[in-house]
Amino acid sequence: MIDAATPPQHSLPALYREHRSWLEAWLRRRLGNAWDAADLSQDTFLKVLASAQPLAEIREPRAYLLTVGKRLLSNFHQRRSLEQAYLNALAQLPEQSLPSAEQRWILLETLQALDELLDGLKAPVRKAFLWSQLEGLGYCAIAERLGVSERTVKRYMAQAYEHCLLAQL
Amino acid sequence: MAAPSTEAREVVRAAARWLALLESGKASELDLQRLAQWRASSSLHENAWQKAQLLRQRFAQLPGELAMATLDRPDAGRRALLKQALGVAALVPAAWLLGRQMPLEAWTADVHTAVGERRRLLLSDGTALQLNTDSAVDIDLPARRLTLVRGEVAVTVPAGVSMAVQVPFGQVAVSAGEACVRLIDQACRVSVLSGTATLQPLRGAALALQAGQQASLQAGGAGPVTALDDLLLGWRDGVLRLDDRPLGDLLRELRRYRAGVLRWEPALETLRVTGTFRLDDTDRVLTLLAASLPLEVHARTRYWVTLAARENRA
Question: CA angle B120-B124-B130, nearest 5°?
């Protein structure tokens, strides 16, 4: 029961006590996994703690937690799908060309960072950029693969560079 | 974080355009001169140009094929995961991906558990089920049949009735007692804790097991019969119990309960372990091991943990 006469005092411990298990249950339904749900709910509270928003001003704590939680969930899926693709790709490599454990780890970190930089690019722009950077394809070949003009490829490339550089500012 | 100024954005845009022009291979002498002028005209310009070069280098240093497969994955997010679980799972050596995938049949089963999760169920006829980590069963109570789709289930059947557990290699009939059925690669292992169980392979003779016995069931036959292995049964109480066993045995069991990759140096395989380890916090188990054995836990991420022999620092 909430006493209408005294507005709830939002301190992080109070917020945590009142809503943690609810948030965890919500995340768990989406993740199908108790562990990751527990992790993400912790992260959500940490984000809330670190955010500029004063706790006392949060009127709808659950709606607020959900907003933060959803963003983290989407990042989580992004990272998870990258990790999965990475492990799959590694598994296809012949034994002798496997990078060392250390290199694999550094590579994963690098790929995650670059993946975040590329996030938000439209699919053809992303493809053009990756083909150019990773496969060394020329604009003409990319244009052919995408079925667009070379001018368009140049525009895509500029867009992709701008996007990545802005994300690093 | 303050938003970048309009000027900074303009400089970045210009650098991006220069780079795109340069890489087109169609930049003329004049273009190159202009680029040199642009870079020289302001330290902001030169700075942005250097950053753009660094970005290119970061991509250039990646192993192309691996990076392409990762960054150009079909779709970011959940849908892609499911697709991969269906398509690629068969090609992937188990050691890389233990526990990370849940094939579609497991999602559509009546009851399933995620990695690290265990679940108890009581059916209306009094049969009790316990589902281990990463498992799935279909329940057909009128037919008195459970189908183990994935993972492991412990079935406790009340006196006077029996329950059949269907597996890809045959059927296990459990009567008046408790049995554990676990799918492993091309076989399944049946352990009888009380009562009796009959193993009927797809081809070949049936095998009756008594309490205290375990055997493997394959499509072509059942057996051999051996004594129960306590390490494989503790999960029903939420623990792994070992008495002077190789560490490798413990780790192979433990990683079923963890999302992600758990690996260890071969040298650690034969270290001896005695103890009871709780399954609800496997991170803690690893910490405990590191405290009591000459090994170190390298947790790159929670999903990528390697155990290494600890160097002697004399």
Answer: 15
